[in-house]
Amino acid sequence: MIAFDRVGKRYPNGFDALSELSFALDAGEMAFVTGHSGAGKSTLLRLVALLERPTRGQVTVNGRNLGAVRRRGIARVRRGVGMVFQDHRLLLDRSVFDNVALPLVIAGVPREEMAKRVRAALDKVGLLEREKSAPSMLSAGEQQRVGIARAIVAKPPVLIADEPTGNLDPQLAAEIMGLFGEFQQVGTTVLVASHDLPLVKRMGKRVLVLDHGRLIDDFQPRNTGP
User: Fold this and answer.
1) Among 34, 67, 164, 187, which one has the highest count of C-beta atoms within 10 angstroms of its own C-beta?
2) d(CA 45, CA 66)
């Protein structure tokens, strides 16, 4: 479902964010990416979402070589990848409902179907009653849940998250990680970048460890199922 084959990423200033990175995640697998600040975690996720392109090597997502995707095909690839960010990236001038609906609006989903999907996604993250609220009226944890609902509303086969619990207290962080675990249980491939090592360890999932852009450990617990 996600495969990196000797991937490198060098930025124009000469900085190598990733070097000779190789790993593969099966469909329905959940894994964490950890490492020091600047280790390459965010770059890895940006390559999965085609927000960046590798300098060398091959990235495959949902069975497609992203290096062969032309500019006009990028939007279609991204529709297959749900993205969750630490800073939520919500539109403050729109309601919770409209924020979650945005990917469906872009995809041209009919209005009636859109409403069903949005409310199902909000129900999944426990915010159905807040659909008319403005994001500014929500707590940090609730805003992150809105971001997750927006990421899963189109039912993408792949879900990636970049430090999704970085601004949350331990209890809320555990709840958010629990949500990601629930998405894996229904077959979604989940890849989460996090520096919260105790929380990652408690999840009992596969852990990829980066150091200066290189994969230095790939820990797989005996039971890697949901």
Assistant:
1) 164
2) 13
Strand order in the sheet with 206-211: 81-85, 158-162, 189-193, 30-35, 206-211, 214-219
pLDDT at 26 over 60: yes
Place 224 in a pLDDT band, splitting at 50, 70 and 90: very low
52 half-sphere exposure, CB direction, 13 A CA radius: 19
Q: By the 8 A CB rule, do 30 and 226 touch?
A: yes
- For the record, the structure tokens of 67 come out as 């290096």
CA distances from 48 to 44, 76, 145, 172 (A): 7, 13, 22, 26
Two tokens, residue 30: 């959940």
Taking the C-alpha atoms of residue 18 and residue 20, their distance in angstroms, rounded to an integer, is 7
Q: Helix, strand, or coil here: 104?
A: helix
Domain at 1-80+156-226, CATH from 3.40.50.300, 3.40.50.920, 3.60.150.10, 3.30.2310.20? 3.40.50.300
Distance CA 27, CA 136 (A): 36
Structure tokens at 212: 């200066």
Closest to 141 in 3D by CA, of 154, 155, 125, 153: 125
- What's this model's pTM, rounded to 2 decimal places? 0.92
Reported as half-sphere exposure (CB side, CA atoms, 13 A), residue 198 has a value of 4
